[in-house]
Specification:
16 strands; about 45% helix
Length: about 575
Amino acid sequence: MARRPLPRILSKDSAQIARTQLARSRELARTAADSATDVLHPLITISRGLRRLASAGRRRWAETPKDRRGPLLFLAASAVLVVVLMPYGPLLAVITVMAAAARQGRDRTPPAPDGPDEAQAERLRSLYEALVPYFSTAEDPAPLYAHGGEWANAFEAHEFDDDGRVAHLVIRYPAYFPDGEAAARARIEHLLAAKAGRGREYHFGWDEEGNRLTLSVLAPLPAGVAAQRFVTAPAETVLGFTDPSEVQRTLPLSYEEERRDVPPVVWRTGIRSTEPHLLAMGHPGSGTSTLLRSIALQALRHGDVLVVDGGGTGEYACLIGRDGVLAVECAPAGALASLEWAAQETERRLTAVNRARQAGDPPPEDTRRPLWILLDRPTVFTHLAEADHRRDPQTFLQVPLRHGRAANVTVVVAEQFDSAESLSEAVRQHTRARVVLGPAVPQQVESVLGMPPHTSPPAQVPPGRGYARLGTGPVHRLQVPATPDPYDDATSEADRQAVLGLLPPRTTPVDAEPVDPDEAVEAVEAVEAVEAVEAVEAVEAVEAVEAVERVEAVDAVDAAGANPEVVAAKSL
């Protein structure tokens, strides 16, 4: 019996080819359907007219009183007989019926208006008048924008939603407008967002070569996506979700009791990453701790995690004692010791990898497992270290930040805007992946990401909502998956079970194992006895060393010459 071949798993290229073929097949089917509709349009119109004529005849027969139905039927039969007996009567009757059916079967849907209605035209006119001071100058001999001018020349395309507000708009502007200046762009974007309708997010696409500005209304990002296992590679981390037009990849997710594909913002780490470390900024309650918990749950699938919590609110208590969690430090002394160990571990990994490469061997196994260092509000420990005259824990981050990519060490820092000036220079310089969460003014977003976003800020900012930029890439809208603290009473049961289901199993540390009280007492007595014996032996050893030193000193004096004091010393 011949074996049936196993189904082959589609690779990325084959899946892309399959999607392309499917899209092409759908386009061909749609084209064929449109062509068939055009060919059969007269037949469809006549059939619709016959159906309407038949409906009108049945309705007229139902409305006729019963005492008049007999004469009416006799009159109809007489007309049919006359038509049959006439020369070419049946042919003329068929032609007449077909003409009547064609007339009755016409599409009576009112045609769409060629242009905007009065209310829409008034809205476009107000937008045009508001742009006149920004897109006009007195030296222009033929201004495109002028008070009382024609808005149709400036707006090439426009669409409105069901509420009568602008949904899409293509604006022409003069070539002398400084579209390369961020301040000039910001003024126009702020004006359009206010005039087109508040409470929505807009995307602004600037075409400097064609002097075109495209305004589009963005759909709200999905805010109800719970924490779950994402279909990613070991070196990929999902920061959140963004607009479909910004990325070319989607992830299958469970969203509100259904499966749907959502475009993600994927951060690639590891030795080949160009942005090996991340900095997240926000205000209190913006969702930076949620982002760190989401990253920790994804990192524990393939690596080890070290958490340093400067907030001191127990946001990461659910990670204590889990497989892969090295430590969760909330005290200054513990944070200092943990970061010092992380710096030494990075140096050890670098040395081991360097020796292996010089010997022509692959990197050791203990250097391949990723190490994640997650710090939530590290500037709190900086202030405490200054008060106690201790070393700043951020100084130990310089080695992991500078050499972390080669050692497979990743650093993630979350801080608030009010403490941003306390971040060390190493953190500012080496964190090329940036995230801004919560309500923030455009100046704050630009100071963190390096460039302003191309969208207007939302009217209501849910937790975990913000912007992300990876290196020198574009700025993406971001919605972090809901990853709340499962031990918080305000967390819903669904979110709590989702987070607990992603946590690795808990391991019991050695110092936390239960011990018998009698055995503990015996162990303490044994330790004390050993310490006493060691102390006695230490005293005897010291006395013996001192006696030997005295004898050596006396012999040295005898060698130099006899002395009464030396004789007295020897007698002792």
